[in-house]
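Curious: can you check?
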Amino acid sequence: MVGAGGRLTDWVSLGVLASSVPRDAVDDAVAVTGKQARRRDGKLPPHVVVYLVMALALFADDDYEEAAARLTGTLASWGCWDEAWEVPTSGGITQARQRLGSEPMRELFAQVAVPVADQLTQGAFLGRWRLMSIDGFEWDAPDTRENAAAFGFSGAGPDDPGRAAFPKARVVTVSECASHAVADAAIGAVAGKGAGEQSLARELYPRLEEDWLLIADRHFYNWADWWVKADLPLPVLDLLPDGSYSSVLVNPKARGKARQQLIDAARAGKDLGEDQARYVRVIEYEVPDRDGDGKGEVIALITTITEMTAAPGPLLAQAYHQRWEHETGNAQLKTHLRGPGRVLRSKSPDMVRQEIYGYLLTHYAISALICRAATEADIDPDRVKFKRTVRIIRRQAAGPAAFPP
């Protein structure tokens, strides 16, 4: 339904964000974090600044004032621009962002970011499990003293010729394989204690849903989180008809006789304490010429789904390769939305975090739109080009109604 006087193309661009990041969720996030406007003094209200941060992600090539002009034009066309508000300049936008901070953006993302595929979306489920993946990437931030101290540089040290030119923020995300929609995220440093992907991932694991089948590559494996080391021998307990075999993972601290006793107990089918050992299933399969060198590669896929009938080996092997969809989602964020090689705008750590959440929210809204359209058309969401979709949205957003009031 299009209101009187509105153009269909205007409403298309409006719906991209309005349906996924609604105004009431923005107001809730602002209130929860205590960032409400204190008085009507002509400054931009917090909810406008939230959408402005998202506009900066959608129009990464534009400067502050151009992105703000698109937003204020939208609000004015809806009759939602208060004459008491200041039309933002570059300096005004910087101050408004600083007043808002990163916490409302983080809270907003936590509220709205959920999986968007349904049972009719192609490639979204394996049986009763929703296919999800976890991975990380790094984002260049401006080389300021504050950013360098908070995030650090990739490389061994300040005199290392291989050290990165910019400080880097590390982002680890859990995303839906079918839609590429990011459902959770943690932001941290690339240097210092607790700066690795595994450390950030531990912030996300407690928030996983029971019906998610989380897929990860070998870099996330460790006993504390995934009960496995990449080079740990996997004793064969029982060969299964689907080509997989049951095995047991043993705590690396158990060695020698203690380790063998746990393996013997597993072969006897005894109950194992999860702090010492855990039953798993292993699916081994070969990918021919994966690296283009004429040789095949054997992949050992380890799963805690021990019942063969719940998820047969061939289906699990096929599902594992959905993990590469996460790489596609990362490319959408870093290349198609932000732009290749582009450094973030923000010169302070809190603003870097705010800006990243703006990108995550905008990417989420676009991914949700693509998934809904693909599901309605009964096609795989991969067939809808993200880059082309962004171009259409930007083109329509050049007119009014790009963002909800």
